[in-house]
């Protein structure tokens, strides 16, 4: 795969794509160019049938330590209102396939918001999460005030948003922000392993399951249950449903084709 300046792209396992944030000298600060490249990489992954799951990671020091403060400092109200970066965040939020964050080191500000915009977070034992925007006289602007309380509850989310303090990986796990905590050197391997497990499932059912869980997470229970039932019914129009049930009955591995 081709490599861009701020995002490195590889396919380390069948049906699994790895996106690596590549600004180590700035702790992977999310400048505009990086966000454009990330949105483009996810758009390409969404369009490629062979890609069934994506892992996004940083490096051992930082997943992403926040927005690029130099860029933020240059904005005023009018320029922020017309800023096009929100379209890149929308591309992340609307990515239809499973998206896993492999987090080592700092995931702060926009970095924490990026991790929360994924479907599953695998954290290294040294990971730190937080929304320190209050220290800059601003607030989280890419989902931090909305996703954080849904993940860890109002009280702790309010504390982080108002103080700028961080929480460690164990606290993030206990409160539901991350799915697993592993040794730092195993973070990417574990995320890729999980992605490969998911990629082996029926692709249409996986996408329907993701969409249904997000409906419950982002909406009300009644609407979520209705959406879940419709998505469940759609699965019964797929060849993969027939293959999956037949393979179970015949006690053999299923060969899913995404149809």
Structure report:
The protein is an alpha/beta fold. The protein folds into two domains: 7-199, 2-enoyl-CoA Hydratase, Chain A, domain 1 (Alpha-Beta Complex); 203-250, Orthogonal Bundle (Lyase 2-enoyl-coa Hydratase, Chain  A, domain 2), CATH 1.10.12.10. It is built from twelve helices and ten strands. The strands form two sheets. It has a six-stranded mixed β-sheet, sandwiched between helices. It has a four-stranded mixed β-sheet with strand order 4-6-8-9. Strand 2 (16-21), helix 1 (32-47) and strand 3 form a beta-alpha-beta unit. Helix 10 packs antiparallel against helix 11. It is globular and about 60 Å long. The mean pLDDT is 90.
Care to give the gist of this entry?
The protein has twelve helices and ten strands.
Strand-helix topology:
Elements: E1 7-13, E2 16-21, H1 32-47, E3 53-57, E4 62-64, H2 69-73, H3 77-81, H4 85-93, E5 99-103, E6 106-108, H5 110-117, E7 120-124, E8 128-130, H6 144-152, H7 154-163, E9 166-168, H8 169-174, E10 180-182, H9 187-199, H10 203-218, H11 221-235, H12 239-250
Parallel strand pairs: 2-3, 3-5, 4-6, 5-7, 6-8, 7-10
Antiparallel strand pairs: 1-2, 8-9
């Amino acid at each position: 795969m081709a490599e861009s300046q701020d995002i490195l792209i590889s396919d380390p396992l069948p049906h699994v794509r790895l996106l690596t944030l590549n600004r180590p000298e700035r702790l992977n600060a999310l400048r505009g160019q990086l966000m454009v490249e990330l949105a483009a990489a996810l758009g390409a992954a969404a369009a490629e049938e062979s890609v069934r799951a994506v892992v996004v990671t940083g490096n051992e020091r930082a997943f992403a330590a926040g927005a690029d403060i130099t860029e933020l400092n240059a904005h005023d109200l009018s320029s922020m209102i017309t800023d096009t970066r929100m379209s890149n965040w929308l591309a992340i939020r609307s990515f239809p396939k499973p998206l896993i964050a492999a987090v080592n080191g700092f995931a702060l500000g926009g970095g924490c918001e990026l991790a929360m915009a994924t479907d599953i977070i695998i954290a290294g034992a040294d990971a730190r999460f937080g929304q320190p925007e209050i220290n800059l006289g601003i607030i989280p602007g890419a989902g931090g005030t909305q996703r954080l309380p849904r993940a860890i509850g109002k009280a702790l989310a309010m504390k982080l948003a108002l103080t700028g303090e961080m929480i460690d990986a164990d606290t993030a796990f206990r409160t539901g922000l991350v799915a697993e905590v592993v040794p730092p050197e195993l973070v990417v391997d574990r995320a890729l392993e999980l992605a490969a497990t998911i990629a082996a499932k029926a692709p249409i059912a996986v996408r329907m399951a993701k969409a249904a869980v997000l409906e419950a997470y982002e909406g009300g229970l009644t609407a979520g249950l209705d959406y879940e039932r419709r998505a469940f019914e759609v699965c019964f129009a797929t060849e993969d449903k027939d293959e999956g049930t037949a393979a179970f009955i015949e006690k053999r591995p299923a060969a899913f084709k995404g149809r």
